[in-house]
Every structure is written in structure tokens, then in C-alpha cells.
Amino acid sequence: MLTEFFGVSTLEAILLTFKLAFITSGLLLLIALPLAWFLAKWQSKAKPLVMSILALPLVLPPTVLGFYLLIAFSPQSALGQGWQSLTGSNLAFSFEGLVLGSVIYSLPFALQPLYSGFSQLDNRYLDVAKTLGFSAFEAFIKIVLPLSKAPIVVALGLSFAHTIGEFGVVLMIGGNIPGETQVLSIALYEQVEALEYNSAHNLALALLIFSFVMLAALYRFNGVTRSDEVR
Amino acid sequence: MQISALLPNRINAQISLQPQSRFIGVTGPSGAGKSSLFRALGGVEKSAKVQTPWTSQKVGIVFQQPMLFPHTDVRGNLALAQRHASPNAMSIDACLRGCYCEHLIDKPVQALSGGEAQRVAIARALVNGPDVLLLDESLSAIDIFTRRKIYQFLNNLCVSGKLICLVISHDLDDLALFSDELVFIDQGRTELCGKTRDVLTQVFAKEGFATPSSVLEGFKVTAQSEAHDSNQSQNAVVSYKHGSQTQQDQNVLTLQGNEQCQSEKGIERVEVAGHEIFVTAESVSYLPQQSGEQVSVRFAVKACDVSIDTNITDFGNASTISILNALPCVISSIEPVANPLSPLNEPENNADTKLTDTKLTSIKLATVNSAKVLLKLDVLNSNQPLYASISCISLSRLKLDVGMQVIARFKLP
User: Model ipTM?
Assistant: First the structure.
């Protein structure tokens, strides 16, 4: 039924997009959790500078970021060269390159909710945990993470949804290789280019509904958690 | 026991305590640095330089805000505290019982009232098995009856040598009853430190309290000595209960003999300066003791609960009033008391109005703009002072004066 509705190649793009979004948001959580915790505790004059760099993908045109990433991924650069010597394949125009680009592009969407969640966490919970004999790591796992359920879910949801809607960066570093780097937004762009409006309509509507449901669920979850806290 | 804590620009406290002190009260005005001191002693202030005698021991801290972990319920909070509990830590059940919160075990943290959450927070700290427990106004939202019972429980742990408690509180009655020693902190420094009675006296003088409390210590009278006393002792209370009253009184006592024995249930006797004082379990706290020593207890008497009797010949025969407790005393000073609510009644100058000479006080008091006076009484055969707050009317009616011998009669809670 889905094959009839979207077509085989579009379905392939959908699956690839979801695979990319799952991997990206999972990786982002692993990176952003310690990074946000460090930033929330870090007191330094250099902090605004570091925060600005990490937030750059929020305001930078995706094509600018994609352009720089494309240069960094090329076999002439240290990163691209290192990758090629390790894996034997090119980082640019590969799924792995796409993942790396997505992680960088969506980083602020995972980092910001976690950073503000950790910043607002009452440090006295950690003081209590310390006096109860918890190590810093154990307190983070047993106290901080459960208390930061809402920011974690929001970070996951936002980075997932943002990766689904990615276009500019993917186009620059991934190209348009079906089954390898062709994601939903690129597939839609191609359908419009080819004047396949029916397919484009189906895909656009599906993306619209998905994004709306995702955001509504996030807001609802956030609301429920907040009212729990108030109670 | 020497404790010092230094937090740059916040506290610089040096506290010197007796080695046998196990329940230490800490008080002082708001913003004096008491909480910072506890945070430093609890090891949660990174920049603090602290020296304590308990470096290798486990220190627990309970803040005024209970800080129960909201992602789990009461049971979950206690389980988290048990993860790193000392081998000799009390069981969860014992801690819950001691803090009167057994019924809260399955409640979510959000459903607890302020007082309930404070009780659970203390239980959680105890489950962890600390050697030293720092309570930073941790019982402030608990009703007085439960609070006193929890203090009793903590005090018993201290007396049995299982715990050292440092307690911040603004309730001087609580501190008077339970503290072995008292510390007064102001502007980040230790202003006063020493025996509770001495520090309280200075705090009352400093802060101008209208109704200070006196702290009295005595030995608990055991069953055998009770029997001995009832047969032989001629002291006041005993002779009042069993002794040589009028025939009418004796009839009453005989008729009500069994009833009187019954009515002593819940009443314990404490010997102070050779006189028996009747107390309830709630009105005393136990003192740390060596093995083989008599059981020492402490109780606090509010100055407003002390009345003065000038009929010293009838020490034990006060058969017409309900107050049981009496101690023979000598008035050592009389001071006017300022009414804190009335700015018109401010004492003119304590140094000038303190009456320590032997002139008739009523004449001098005519010049004092105050409704009440505070008598400092020296209990005979004891170095324990007792305070009585009485009206100027009573002072002049009874013609009280410094050096006069009187009987202080007082009620205990």
C-alpha cells in the first residue's frame, strides 16, 4: 500500500531518511549529554565564544555549512584523507558523510534543550547525592538523567525532526544517490523538478503531518512534565 | 573538639567544643553564615577550608529545603540513600519509625507536605548511616509535637554514641532542651560557644528576649531511690505527696491513693540540687553519660512559666496550688524587660536599670518604663540559674528584692 502511495524510490528515500534520523539523534544524544553537562558547569570567559560556535548551525545558511563540510570531507583534506585511509572509501557523497554532516548540523537542536535543562537543575540535588556517597558519574546517571527526562526527550525529538527536514547540507555533501544519499527532502525536490506533482503532494503532505504530530507530541510531553513539577 | 571553617568573604568560624558533646545547637541571625558553615562542614563547598575531628567519618547533611529526588517516590529516595550506606546504618524501617513517617513510604514526593518532606529527608539521611549529621533548619516546617519527638529520637542516637548532631535552629526552646553545647554565629564568625545555659544567657541578654528559658540538669530518680525517697526524704515534693498535712488532706490522699499512683504514669522524677522535679518524657532530654553513672537529664524552663512564692516556710506544703515543681532560690538580679512590640516601652539603659543593690525595688521601678521584670534566681546548693518573668505589680506587691530567698514554682510542658 505504501509502495503504491509513494512509489519504490520514494519509499527507499523515506527509509534512508529515518535511518539517518535515528542514527543522528542517537549519536547526538551521546555527544550532547556530556557536552551540555560540561557547558552548564563550565565557568570561563571563553564560554560565550564556544557557545556561539556550537550554535552556529542554527543561523548559518545550510549551504554555507554544507560547502565547508564538503571541503573538509574531500580526499584532499586531512579529515577526508584520514577517513579514506581507514575505510578505503570516500567520505563525501556517502551515507557516513551524511551522518557526520547531520550530526554537526543538528547539534544545537540537541544541545540547547539539554544545556538549559542542566542549567536549571538545582545543584542541591547533587549536594545531597554527594553527601549520600554518590560519585559524580553515579550522581549524573542516577539523579541528573532521571531529573532531565523532559529535556532529553525534547533534544531527541528536535534533532530527529530536524534531521528529517534537512535539505541544504545533504544536497551539498551527499548529492542525490538513490539508496545511498537521497533523503526525503531531496526526493521531493527532484519530484518537483520532474513536474511529478502528485507524488510531490503525497510526500509533502506526509512530511507535514509527520512534523506536526512529532512537535505536538513533544509539546504535550513537555507540558505534562512541567505540570508534574508544579504539582 | 576543634572545628574551623573558612570560606573567603563569607565565613571564618572557629568552634571549640567539649569532646563529650554530641548534640550541638547552632543559632544566630538570618544571613549570619550558618548554612554556609554547614555546607562547608558537609563538604559541598569546594572553596572551603575545613578542619574537623571527623575527617574519616561519614557526614550527612539535611537542608531546610528537603531536596527529595522528585523523579522517584519516598521508597525510591530511601533506596538511593541505602546504596552507599555504612555497614552499621539503621534499617529503613527504624529510620522511618524514628522520624514518624512510616505511613509515607509509598507516597510520591510531590504529594508530601513541607513538614512530611522534611521528616522523610531526615530519615533518608539516617538511612545512609552518617557518623555526623548536619541539620540546617531541617525541622522548621514540622509541628512542635512531632518535632520534639524527632529531636528526642536523634538525641537518643547521640546519647547512645551512634551519632553526632549539629543542628541549626532559630527555636531556642528546642536548642535549650537538646543541645549539649550551643554555638552562636554572627557575620560569619563564632560569636559565642560553650555550655548551652551560658550561651543562652548571653544570647538572651544580647537579643533582649522577654521570656528566656533556663536550662536545668539533674539525675533521673530510679525506682529504688523513689521508694527510698517516699519513705525517708523530707524534701518538698515528696512530703507534699505523702507527708504531714492536715487530717483533711490526708483523707483526700488516702482516698485517692490508687488514683494518684495511676496518675503518675508518664511522669518521671528528676533530682535537682537535692529536690525532686516532676517531668514528662517529652520535657526532658538525656545527656551523654559514662557507663555506671547516674542517668543525667536536662529540661528547659521558660521564664514566663516560673512563679515566685515568698512563703519559704511552706516549701513542701503548697497544697492549694497545682504547680508541683519547686526550688528554693535567692534573687540575684532584677532587670526590667522591654516589650518588643511597643517602641514606647524600650528600656532606657540596661546598665542603669539593672537592680542589684538592696534598696526597695518598687521605688526604683517607678522610674522604669516597663510592665515586666526578669528575675535571675540562684538555685540553693546549685550553680544553675533560673529565670522568672513576673509583672512589676507582683514585684512591688511581694516587695521582692535582690538577695531575698524565695521559692520558684514552675510548670513544665
Answer: 0.78
